[in-house]
TrEMBL record:
<feature type="domain" description="Cobalamin-independent methionine synthase MetE C-terminal/archaeal">
    <location>
        <begin position="427"/>
        <end position="748"/>
    </location>
</feature>
<keyword id="KW-0489">Methyltransferase</keyword>
<dbReference type="GO" id="GO:0008270">
    <property type="term" value="F:zinc ion binding"/>
</dbReference>
<feature type="binding site">
    <location>
        <position position="641"/>
    </location>
    <ligand>
        <name>Zn(2+)</name>
    </ligand>
</feature>
<keyword id="KW-0479">Metal-binding</keyword>
<feature type="binding site">
    <location>
        <position position="656"/>
    </location>
    <ligand>
        <name>Zn(2+) 1</name>
    </ligand>
</feature>
<feature type="binding site">
    <location>
        <position position="643"/>
    </location>
    <ligand>
        <name>Zn(2+) 1</name>
    </ligand>
</feature>
<comment type="function">
    <text>Catalyzes the transfer of a methyl group from 5-methyltetrahydrofolate to homocysteine resulting in methionine formation.</text>
</comment>
<keyword id="KW-0862">Zinc</keyword>
<feature type="binding site">
    <location>
        <begin position="431"/>
        <end position="433"/>
    </location>
    <ligand>
        <name>L-homocysteine</name>
    </ligand>
</feature>
<protein>
    <recommendedName>
        <fullName>5-methyltetrahydropteroyltriglutamate--homocysteine methyltransferase</fullName>
        <ecNumber>2.1.1.14</ecNumber>
    </recommendedName>
</protein>
<dbReference type="InterPro" id="IPR013215">
    <property type="entry name" value="Cbl-indep_Met_Synth_N"/>
</dbReference>
<dbReference type="GO" id="GO:0071265">
    <property type="term" value="P:L-methionine biosynthetic process"/>
</dbReference>
<feature type="binding site">
    <location>
        <position position="19"/>
    </location>
    <ligand>
        <name>5-methyltetrahydropteroyltri-L-glutamate</name>
    </ligand>
</feature>
<feature type="domain" description="Cobalamin-independent methionine synthase MetE N-terminal">
    <location>
        <begin position="4"/>
        <end position="310"/>
    </location>
</feature>
<comment type="pathway">
    <text>Amino-acid biosynthesis; L-methionine biosynthesis via de novo pathway; L-methionine from L-homocysteine (MetE route): step 1/1.</text>
</comment>
<feature type="binding site">
    <location>
        <position position="599"/>
    </location>
    <ligand>
        <name>L-homocysteine</name>
    </ligand>
</feature>
């Protein structure tokens, strides 16, 4: 018999129950017991939902209050000294947020993207003398909780080598030297799970789809030779790409089963079957865990049939990766276009697809109707007139290299921009958004529901903009923004005004902690029917003599933070988006906006796992940015912003984007992320963030001066901007005022220091 299983499930709840519980706990409105009660109810609800889909094994350990990598670090006893020695929930949130319930500030752990997804993980910190000890019973407690409901658990563990790979070091040493100290804890975890009656444990090693140094490849054999003595069966899970040249040694590892991603890398099945032993379990990841389109079940059945012809062992079926990256249930979407809705599948529907696949193998007649419905939906999408726009196709044919070039090089542009803007050294600005108060959210929601008129809505937004402008003027900022009060999300807002997009009511996905997003669905050709932001930026500029920044989200970020159509190359969709944003950029310039920021927060996360494919992505991603930004005059200053990322290996491409100013998040890394720009001798201007907006802490003037001095050791004052790490949407005004006042004081201090 074929077994079906799942690699992980969304945590937030269908109505974001975990988000709201966490935020109430952080505000002191509920205690830890109530937080745990809500978490328990969510876990059990999700387990029952998965069990109703006929899964043979239910994942456990995939639930987290903040992040699964942080959970692993705490379980291993890896808590940086600055947080104290306790492993309780207060320490956990100190590591994640930089603040405990008593309000004491800490420097939070770094946060960066989980491979090429929009999920953020907390970076482990290890030292050369790092010691490990089993320090959390969370996994064992939740396993017992699941067993008490009568279900077969499959505990999920982040693998020791992936955890080490993701960790940062505080000094120069080889992280692999820690393996001998780390593995006994993993051995103890597996033994305890065996004592609980667990048969299978899923160990995730997604770094196996990366280009690995030989020492790390060799380490896999040594590590799993030691772990094979454990009394449980190990399912080694890989996802987000192909094993490639690793397939031969991975297939020989002494584990009982292997999971492979056949959505991202269907071509790898042949090489795995060439090397895989028939006495092992092979898990086929056939359902897309990263996107929301229905599975072509007939194509998946063909893959299963091909595998069964060559592989005589036991097959399991699963999603390609954890379903953490998709919304929970499509049935809540009652307002969607019925035709397009029939093309979609959320987490619950994806598990149903697994059940249908198994049924189609074991009882083909019983699955016939479900297969017919699937085939009709696939055909409907392929043949639909909704997805093609002849005007967009015509515009795409006119794209050429001349559309991607500014009139002159940066040194020439810089002189014209300085003459126009007349900014001081260390100019201060923000990244775009200001706090989204309950009043702002209510006005936006009331307008959407038709409870207030468009005139009243515009009046409310103009009042909000004027408030933001006056606050910025009083704080002494040099370049202002309108505050983005009208925007629900930096991607969703634009998608709502572009053709080719679809929006859900409850399609929430976790980004980090309690932060969740509702990604748009790009189902067809993209175009811009009318201006999207010009009204608000133009009004804001009319209120002040200081330069106003127009705020846009870039094409690559809209692409990477949406559920993208999979019936054409991603590059094609990126160029369509770029043409739409280019029209908006040009309209902002015509409206008198002197600075336009085109955020590419997700630029790096689109990199394929394998470096051999990087250049292809970088080429079209850079071209898409330049296509949308190069239609302006030299005197118009183009900014871009990038979120938590490593830049060293793509710095040449970032320079090729040719933005006049780039702002980056650097405060959590203590300016370490700036080193790539220093080593490269980045020619344009840079704003290294000095205010960590993902923490509730208020940075002092001294803190920011220290960070800017560190940046100034290698970057000329004429190149440096002063700004927060990211937008201020999630913060409170009382904290924002103090933080920005401290930031402007830091800039004044540095100006006076250089004369």
């Amino acid at each position: 018999m074929i077994k079906i299983h799942n690699l992980g499930f969304p945590r937030l709840g269908e109505h974001r129950e975990l988000k709201f519980a966490l935020e109430r706990y952080w505000r002191g409105e509920i205690d830890q017991d109530e937080l745990e009660r809500i978490a328990t109810e969510l876990r059990q609800r999700h387990w029952r939902l998965q069990a109703s889909s006929g899964l043979d094994f239910i994942p456990v350990g995939d639930f987290s209050y903040y992040d699964q990598v942080l959970d692993t670090s705490v379980m291993l006893g890896v808590i940086p000294e600055r947080f104290g020695s306790s492993t309780g929930v207060d320490t956990y949130f100190r590591m994640a947020r930089g603040q405990s319930t008593d309000g004491q500030p800490y420097r939070a752990c770094e946060m960066t993207k989980w491979f090429d997804t929009n999920y953020h993980y907390l970076v482990p910190e290890v030292t050369a003398d790092q010691q490990f000890a089993l320090s959390s019973t969370k996994l064992f407690d939740e396993t017992s909780e699941l067993q008490a409901l009568g279900y077969q658990p499959k505990p999920v563990l982040l693998g020791p080598l992936t955890w080490l790979w993701l960790a940062k070091t505080t000094s120069d040493f080889n992280k692999l030297d820690l393996v001998d100290r780390l593995l006994p804890v993993y051995g103890e975890i597996l033994r305890r799970l065996a004592d609980q009656g667990v048969e299978w444990v899923q160990i995730d090693e997604p770094i196996l789809v990366l280009d690995l140094p030989s020492a790390w490849k060799n380490a896999f054999e040594a590590v799993y030779n030691r772990l094979q003595s454990s009394p449980v069966k190990i399912l080694l899970a890989t996802y987000f790409g192909e094993l490639g040249e690793h397939a031969s040694f991975v297939c020989r590892l002494p584990v009982a089963g292997l999971h492979i991603d056949l959505v991202r890398a269907p071509e790898q099945l042949a090489s795995v079957l060439d090397n895989f032993a028939n006495h092992k379990i092979l898990s086929l990841g056939l359902i897309d865990g990263r996107n929301i389109w229905r599975t072509n079940l007939n194509a998946a059945l063909s893959t299963i049939t091909a595998a069964r012809e060559r592989f005589k062992g036991e097959l399991w079926l699963a999603p390609s990766c954890s379903l953490l990256h998709v919304p929970i249930d499509l049935e809540h979407e009652t307002a969607l276009n019925p035709t397009i809705k029939s093309w979609l599948a959320f987490a619950r529907q994806k598990l149903t697809e697994l059940e249908v696949l198994r049924l189609a193998i074991e009882e083909p007649t019983a699955a016939a109707q479900d297969l017919l419905v699937s085939a009709n939906a696939i055909r409907s999408r392929r043949e639909s007139t909704l997805i093609h726009n002849p005007a967009v196709q015509a515009a795409m044919e006119k794209i050429n290299d001349s559309l991607m070039q500014r009139q002159n090089s940066f040194p020439v542009r810089r002189g014209q921009q300085q003459a126009r803007l007349n900014l001081p050294r260390y100019p201060t600005t923000t990244i775009g958004s200001f706090p989204q108060t309950p009043e702002i959210r209510k006005a936006r929601a009331d307008f959407k529901r038709g409870l207030i008129s468009e005139i009243d809505y515009i009046k409310h937004m103009e009042q909000t903009i004027e408030f933001c402008v006056r606050e910025q003027e009083s704080l002494g900022l040099d370049v202002l923004v309108h505050g983005e009060g009208e925007r629900n999300d930096m991607v969703e807002y634009f998608g709502e005004q572009l053709d080719g997009f679809l929006f859900t009511a409850n399609g929430w996905v976790q980004s980090y902690g309690s932060r969740c997003v509702k990604p748009p669905i790009i189902y067809g050709d993209v175009s811009r029917p009318k201006p999207m932001t010009v009204r608000w930026s133009q009004y804001a500029q009319s209120l002040t003599d200081k330069p106003m920044k127009g705020m846009l989200t870039g094409p690559v970020t809209i692409l990477n933070w949406s559920f993208v159509r999979d019936d054409q190359p991603r590059s094609t969709t990126a160029y369509q988006l770029a043409l739409a944003i280019r029209e908006e950029v040009n309209d902002l310039e015509r409206a008198g906006i002197p600075i336009i920021q085109i955020d590419e927060a997700a630029f790096r996360e689109g990199l394929p796992p394998r470096q051999s494919r990087w250049q292809g992505y970088l080429d079209w991603a850079v071209r898409a940015f330049r296509l949308c930004s190069s239609g302006v005059q030299d005197s118009t200053q183009i900014h871009t912003h990038m979120c938590y990322s490593e830049f060293n290996d793509i710095i040449t491409s970032i320079a090729d984007m040719d933005a006049d100013v780039i702002t980056i998040e650097t405060s959590r890394s203590n300016m370490e992320l700036l080193e790539a720009f220093i080593d490269f001798n980045y020619p344009n201007e840079i704003g290294p963030g000095v205010y960590d907006i993902h923490s509730p802490n208020v940075p002092t003037t001294g803190d920011m001066i220290a960070l800017l001095k560190k940046a100034g050791e290698h970057i000329a004052p004429d190149q440096l901007w002063v700004n927060p790490d990211c937008g201020l949407k999630t913060r409170q005004w009382q904290d924002v005022r103090t933080s920005l006042a401290n930031m402007t004081e830091a800039a004044k201090f540095l100006r006076s220091a250089i004369g």
